[in-house]
Recover the amino acids of this structure.
């Protein structure tokens, strides 16, 4: 009996290793295994295409379009500020950035600083601290050390932008966290913290 079960297991193994002519095994939920790809503004075929009642899926009620309403607070692509930054990720680039000024409109300084503060508190304060003293919760927990106090550093708005863009020393780049303009707003807010 024991030999018979070993032979059965071995035969099952060989049968499962058949060549490419073997048909694929059945799929339990094909609608989840083979997902439909949607093109924006293309007619949707998902869900209940022949059903006349309202669907809970927004795409089916949006005149059959597959694109959805953007999430509240997102920035439309055509409204993103594009401010080119040409300095290289090098020590020379960092030194050259010390002479840069913010390209943002000075008449919007108050709103720029307010937005910079909000973004700083979301992305930077965990390490750099709410007041820029390098004593954020991550540093206080002992998980990471050596975050500088802004008041102890010779920094400019340009050098802060450069560090956000490319990173420096142990800090990595945060360029992907902010738009071009928002990087300058955070840099301006950092200078506000330094000068307090």
């Amino acid at each position: 009996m024991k030999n018979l079960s070993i032979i059965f297991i071995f035969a099952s193994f060989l049968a499962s290793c058949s060549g490419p002519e073997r048909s694929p095994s059945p799929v339990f939920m094909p609608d989840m295994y083979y997902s439909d790809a949607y093109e924006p503004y293309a007619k949707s075929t998902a869900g209940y295409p022949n059903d006349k009642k309202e669907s809970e899926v927004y795409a089916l009620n949006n005149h059959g379009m597959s694109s959805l309403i953007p999430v509240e607070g997102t920035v439309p692509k055509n409204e993103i500020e594009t401010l080119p930054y040409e300095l290289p990720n090098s020590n020379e680039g960092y030194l050259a950035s010390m002479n840069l000024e913010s390209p943002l409109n000075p008449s919007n300084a108050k709103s720029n600083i307010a937005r910079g503060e909000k973004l700083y508190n979301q992305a930077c304060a965990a390490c750099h601290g709410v007041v820029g003293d390098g004593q954020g919760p991550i540093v206080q927990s002992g998980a990471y050390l050596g975050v500088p106090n802004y008041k102890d550093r010779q920094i400019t708005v340009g050098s802060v932008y450069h560090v956000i863009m490319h990173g420096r020393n142990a800090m990595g780049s945060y360029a992907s966290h902010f738009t071009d303009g928002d990087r300058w707003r955070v840099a301006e807010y950092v200078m506000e913290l330094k000068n307090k």
User: Anything to note?
Assistant: The longest helix spans residues 180-195. Residues 77-195 form a domain with the Cytochrome Bc1 Complex; Chain D, domain 2 fold (CATH 1.10.760.10).
